Amino acid sequence: MIHFAWPWMALLAPLPWLLYRVRRAVEPRGATVFLPFAASFTMHSSGIAAGSARGRILCGIIWLLLVGAATRPQWLGAPMPVPTTGRRLLLAVDVSGSMSTQDMANGASRLQVVQQVAGRFIDGRHGDRVGLILFGSRPYLQAPLTSDLTTVHDFLDEAVVGVAGTNTAIGDAIGLAIKRLREQVSSGTGDPPTKSHKTVLVLLTDGQNDAGVMPPLKAAQFAAESGIRIYTIGVGAPARQGFFGITGNADLDEPTLKAIAKATGGKYFRATDASALKSVYREIDKLEPAAGHKQWLRPATEYFSWPLALALLLSLPTSAWMGRRAWA
After folding, report:
1. d(Cα 86, Cα 199) in Å, to the nearest integer?
2. Residue range(s) defining the domain that contains residue 36
3. Residue 162, by phi and psi: left (phi above 0), alpha (psi -120 to 50) or beta?
4. pLDDT in tens, 213-258
5. CA–CA gap between residue 323 and residue 198 (Å, rounded)
6. Is 181 exposed, middle or buried (0-12, 13-18, 19+ CB in 10 A)?
7. What is the domain-level CATH number for residue 128?
């Protein structure tokens, strides 16, 4: 659509007419001083000032073109999302073998429930940069910190159980988050954590640390020193002693997850079903609110050069023609 950046410049359009009216009002009437060369000067200058009707029309067109260029006509394109700076939010999701257990919703595995609930959580983080780490026996950076929330959501949906191994390396997952943050800061693509640029890690697991080289509590200490706040989530139905043995999640190491969260200033949550997991992510949204609504930009193409160039083309022959008339 056509847009004028400086529409108030159109107020200059009647300026030549106003100057002409003021000039006529103050023009002296009758001779006051006799100058022998005044007649010839008046004859030449009148040809330039008054000219013919065609000359006045051309001058008017040139002036209107100049005023049109001064209003800065633009063509505004379709709105485009603009990345905004807010929190750096990393999601570390356990994809070990036990995440295939179907005990949080009817017919859905733990990972499928996490994909549905965490996906909606990602979609609401407008203004933040979100990254995704998948971990099992080893952690992998699935999506670096980015404002493209749709891509991060898609990567989460594509995760499958066992893609990173069948065991659980909680400490290595935290270590990878620290490493990625430090790499961004050292390369100049990220800022050190501040009150306005916080880094948050939301770590979700259904087991205990039984793989990797980094102890979870040691990793939590490094995270605290790096300015990373960790929220830990333990998923899976509560363990129960049944007729056929223990059912539910008996492998979850809640004391370690609580200690990780406490060491970094975060919080531990327990999600036993899909509804509880939704409440957990709503609570995290309250504790770490998103930066704001998505911002949009409409790219503008400037068109002021067209009327400006046309005014220049018209002014050259017009000035030459009026000059010949004045001195003919």
Report:
1. 9
2. 2-78+299-327
3. left
4. 999 999 999 999 988 999 999 998 886 655 555 555 678 899 999 9
5. 70
6. buried
7. 3.40.50.410
d(C-alpha 286, C-alpha 149), whole Å: 19
**Are the C-beta atoms of residues 149 and 130 closer than 8 Å to each other?**
yes
Report which residue type is found at 60.
G
User: DSSP 3-state assignment of 22?
Assistant: helix
- The pair of structure tokens assigned to 174 is 């935290």
State pLDDT tens for residues 155-213. 999 999 999 999 999 999 999 999 988 777 655 455 554 444 478 999 999 989 999 99
Do 177 and 272 lie in a common domain? yes
- Which residue's structure tokens are 């949204």? 285
**53 shares its domain with 134:** no
Total domain count for the chain? 2
How many CA atoms within 13 Å lie on the side-chain side of 182? 10
316-320 — which CB contacts under 8 Å span 24+ positions? 318/55, 318/58, 318/59, 318/62
